[in-house]
């Protein structure tokens, strides 16, 4: 059974109440339920986590080495400046998919650059909670 680690970064715990015009009305718990159901369709074991702390994200990435087949990450604001998360992804050599609910290329200028994407096998953005479903489907193909 393929093991997937899905990491959600800062402020994603506020989904459903935060900037609904950008992020929608689904909560992170709603998305977790949908993601788990999709993973089960592919006979994959999904671990779904959220943290607001960069160091904890890095620790989870390190712990994944040798234990996880694919990482899916919504790094939130860390997308644009966390060289430490980028380096952790590169170091563990686990195929990683970067995801975003919104289209980061259709927003403020500072959101258009990802320091994470260059060390990922791909990036999915702009499909709301379906970005998670698309990433799980992509993980099944890796």
UniProtKB/TrEMBL annotation:
Lipid biosynthesis found in the keyword field: no
Question: Its pathway?
Answer: Metabolic intermediate biosynthesis; chorismate biosynthesis; chorismate from D-erythrose 4-phosphate and phosphoenolpyruvate: step 3/7
Q: Which InterPro entries match?
A: DHquinase_II (IPR001874), DHquinase_II_CS (IPR018509), DHquinase_II_sf (IPR036441)
Identify the residue position(s) of the site Transition state stabilizer.
18
Residue numbers binding substrate: 74, 80, 87, 101-102, 111
The cross-references to CDD domains, in alphabetical order and at most eight, read: DHQase_II
According to UniProt, the reaction catalysed is:
3-dehydroquinate = 3-dehydroshikimate + H2O
Q: Which GO terms describe its biological process?
A: amino acid biosynthetic process; aromatic amino acid family biosynthetic process; chorismate biosynthetic process; quinate catabolic process
Which controlled-vocabulary keywords does the entry list? Amino-acid biosynthesis, Aromatic amino acid biosynthesis, Lyase
Active site (UniProt): 23 (proton acceptor), 100 (proton donor)
Record-linked PROSITE patterns = DEHYDROQUINASE_II (PS01029)
**Enzyme Commission (EC) number:** 4.2.1.10
GO molecular function annotations of the record: 3-dehydroquinate dehydratase activity
Question: What is known about what this protein does?
Answer: Catalyzes a trans-dehydration via an enolate intermediate.
What family name appears in the similarity comment?
Belongs to the type-II 3-dehydroquinase family.
Name this polypeptide is given? 3-dehydroquinate dehydratase
Q: Gene encoding this polypeptide?
A: aroQ
